[in-house]
Amino acid sequence: MDNIKQLIDELRQELNENNYKYYVLNAPTMSDKEFDEKMALLEQLEKANPQYFDPCSPTQRVGSDITKSFKQVVHERPMLSLANTYSVSEVTDFLNRIKNMLGDEQFQIVGEMKFDGTSISIIYENGRMIRAVTRGDGVQGDDVTDNVKTIHSIPLQLRNGSGYPARFEVRGEILMPWKVFDALNREREYNEEPLFANPRNAAAGTLKLQNSSEVARRKLDAYLYYLLGDNLPFDNHYDNLIAMRQWGFKVSNAIKLLNSIQEVEQFISYWDTERKHLPVATDGLVFKVNSLRQQLNLGYTAKNPRWAIAYKFQAERECTKLQSVSFEVGRSGVITPVANLEPVLLSGTIVKRASLHNEDIIRNLDIHDGDMLYVEKGGEIIPKIVGVNLNARINGSKPVSFITHCPACGSLLQRIEGEASWVCPNKYHCPPQITGRIEHFVGRHAMNIDGIGEEVAEQLYNSGLVKDIADLYDLSADKLMLLDRFGLKSAQRIIKGIDESRKVPFERVIYALSIPYVGETVAKKLAFASTNIDNLMSMSLEQLSAIDEIGIKIAQSVIDFFNVQENRTIVERLRNAGLQMQTAADDTKVSDKLAGKTIVISGVFNLHSRDEYKKMIEVNGGKNSGSISAKTSYLLAGENMGPAKLEKAQKLGITIIDEKQFLALLNQEPENKPQ
Ligand code: IVH
Fold it and tell me: Same structural domain for residues 297 and 438?
């Protein structure tokens, strides 16, 4: 073996070992600086010596932005679920059943946490991760190997050189730790994106992201709890778990061998409260027969193993009286019903209100006026109405009815086809819709005008000073100071913010307009594709839906928005007020060298990022498209390109170019000729 290969191997081993100590044992021995330096050196060596590429190298955990759909894989052994129990006596029944079935033979139970995430099956061959597949329907799931590789607590290469079977499967739970979950939701709130209801949804959603570099950023964790395969090192579950820990897997410390019903009961009562201190969500405990021989004898029902059972923790639930249902109007006119409750203490916070989301939910729960409602928090952060205490229903009470007219402006509500929500159609004269749009317009990610929250927006609207977003640019400190609670300082702050907002880039102006379905990302795409507001306002449905990631629904929404005279007038007034109505100079057209060319980008590049190439195509008059068709002019191919794309391009006879050829394409035009 040459010296370089040896150095690469040593670095990989050292980094793997530190990774294990840091992410699995929580006890790093290497400083962050040293770790980063070694990682950088390894990356450099691997790049210079591509013959030593290894998909399980610690450098391969960063993910890539290649998007692809997941391959379906049939599980080697079906992934069954556990039967649930909800009380200690049901667990005792389970233990007695085992005792009977084993004919009074001695047995031990392993007590474990039931982690509340999303389950995963991972195959290892010769100590290396081969494939990771989601549970799916239990028979087959999605191949999410690239995403799982970004999870540092899952080894790509096992630690001990021997001791593990040549081929085996481990199963476990992928989790988003509470801390990461809270931070992610804070970020989503800031970006005005919908929040994840609980870490389970967040983990499952993250694992299904197409872009593994985004998965890497989300910092998932994993606990492994099940070893399957031939030639397992031990004939019992507990010792196999300990062995797995030696090989580098994160196995929970909360596993315990239990020898009697009393010990099982103690385990339950201990973890019922102690689980609240764990860094990840759990929703119960799992009890498994320890001996693999006994497991085999006990066997399976159609759905569950007979040798294991789940005990579910009681979700924190209270019963409280429904005082009234109010209906709120959002900036897009959607009506949200909200239950006003007699205040009740739930998991440490007082709950007074809970969203009922839409009419269907009220119907399905069959909520009547004055009902006693069950409110749960469980793993959820947002309180949820889960049912009605029918025994406490007032005789003759009526079902809660959904309103027919807007509570703010009295307009007749409309139900959008195919959706569960009712909407107030009076977009331009319904006060909460207008103040909602003002609030959105001034938001940090839109025009970033400080000092205008919900209350001030209402005050501005009610005073008649601001009837639409364009009126903001007619404000002055003097006018503001006529309002209640406004001093010189607060008035000047708002005016300064309004002044500065004139520099906010075009894409954020588009976002600020409150065009239905146009969030930040879509606004960027629209800005980039149109380059200015006049183009955007005159684009056809076909042109809009040809933009990457913009479908018919968004395209139609943009067209509808600009078809309304009120909106065109507002845009005109904003333009006159000096807002940015075109992309910044460096984003606009550079040349027409790629005019009429449709280019698909695929793979990983060395000289520029994919986004940079995308931009280059568009500023040179070309069109970037996500999928290959007969219309594709070039396929700009990087490394590690998906074989399916390559095959399709070859089949259609499309010219495949690498990044150098692409750059040459841009440089051979007149501009470079001597003047
Ligand atoms: S054992 C054949 N152990 O709970 C039994 N499952 O309904 C294999 N889970 O799908 C599962 N913690 O996603 C097992 N310590 C644990 C677990 C656990 C969470 C999940 C798993 C499974 C579901 C069972």
Answer: no
114 among known catalytic residues: yes
Q: Tell whether 248 and 324 lie within a shared domain.
A: no
Residues at CB less than 6 angstroms from ligand 1: 80-82, 112-115, 119, 173, 225-226, 286, 305, 308, 310
Count of the separate structural domains present in the chain: 6
Strand, helix or coil for residue 166: coil
- Asked whether residue 254 falls in the same domain as residue 367, the answer is no
| Domain boundaries, position 512 | 506-587
Query: In the predicted model, is pLDDT for residue 573 greater than 80?
Result: yes
Q: How far apart are alpha carbons 620 and 592 in whole angstroms?
A: 5
- Whether the per-residue pLDDT at 674 is higher than 60: the answer is no
Which of 114, 250, 384, 614 is labelled catalytic? 114
In a shared domain, residues 109 and 190: yes
Residues 181 and 256 occupy one common structural domain = yes
Ligand 1 centroid, distance to 404 Cα (angstroms): 46
Residue-level pLDDT at 588? 63
CATH at 391: 2.40.50.140
Q: How far is the CA of 173 from the centre of ligand 1 (A)?
A: 8
Give the mutation target among 113, 119, 174, 267 for probing the ligand 1 site: most ligand atoms within 8 A of CB. Answer: 119
Q: What are the C-alpha distances in Å from 305 to residues 98, 241, 288, 538, 580?
A: 12, 18, 9, 62, 63
The four Cα atoms 345, 346, 348, 354 give a dihedral, to 10 degrees, of: -90
How far apart are the CA of 114 and the centre of ligand 1, in A? 6
State if pTM tops 0.90. Answer: no
Distance CA 19, CA 30 (A): 9
Q: Are residues 330 and 362 in the same domain?
A: yes
What is the signed CA dihedral for 192, 194, 199, 201, rounded to 10 degrees?
A: -150
Residue 297's SS3 state is: helix
Rounded average pLDDT over 153-169: 90
**Which class for 74: exposed (0-12), middle (13-18), buried (19 or more C-beta within 10 A)?**
exposed
User: What is the distance of C-alpha 417 from the center of its chain?
Assistant: 27
285 DSSP β-pair partners: 113, 311
